[in-house]
Write a structure and sequence with these properties.
The chain has 132 residues and is mainly alpha-helical. 64% of the residues lie in helices and 3% in strands. The chain has six helices and two strands; from the N terminus they run αβαααααβ. The protein has helices at 5-20, 36-51, 53-62, 72-85, 91-100, 106-124; strands at residues 31-32, 128-129. It has a two-stranded parallel sheet with strand order 1-2. The longest helix has 19 residues, at 106-124. The protein is globular, with a radius of gyration of 14 Å. The termini are far apart. The model has no long low-confidence stretch (mean pLDDT 92).
């Protein structure tokens, strides 16, 4: 099912807001602290498509990888996006909810999380990156 124009617009507003208020954005200059976040955020939805939601979230939650950024910050952004619709979820609760999701909940959760990832990918490109 296609995503509505209204939902796309709302997701973009949320994505801009969560990026602006995150640790990946320098609050005084409003620049993204590392251009690697652009690629890592873009790669998240691809990781979900290739591996599934649980493995992708687990990999990013560990914070490890070959890039110079902490991937857990991306999970924090996704959790903040989720919190816009479900205000009670923080990063650890979001991670646990994904990991513990059953086969009935997982498809809807995966769809929403990919939507959040795509909105973040589009929104981060409207920011300047440090040194740019």
């Amino acid at each position: 099912m296609a995503i509505s124009k209204e939902r796309k617009n709302q997701l973009m507003v949320w994505a801009d807001d969560v990026i602006r208020h995150s640790s990946i954005c320098n609050q005084s200059t409003m620049e993204i602290v590392s251009d690697s976040y652009n690629g890592q955020i873009a790669a998240f939805s691809v990781s979900v498509a290739l591996s599934g939601l649980k493995p992708a979230v687990a990999l990013y939650y560990s914070g490890k990888g070959s890039s110079d950024v902490d991937k857990k910050e991306i999970i924090k952004l996704l959790a903040a996006m989720y919190s816009k619709e479900n205000p009670s979820k923080n990063t650890d609760e979001f991670f646990q909810m994904v990991i513990n999701a059953g086969n009935n909940e997982l498809p809807a959760l995966q769809k929403k999380t990919v939507e959040y990832g795509i909105a973040l990918k589009l929104a981060i490109r409207t920011f300047k990156f440090k040194g740019q």
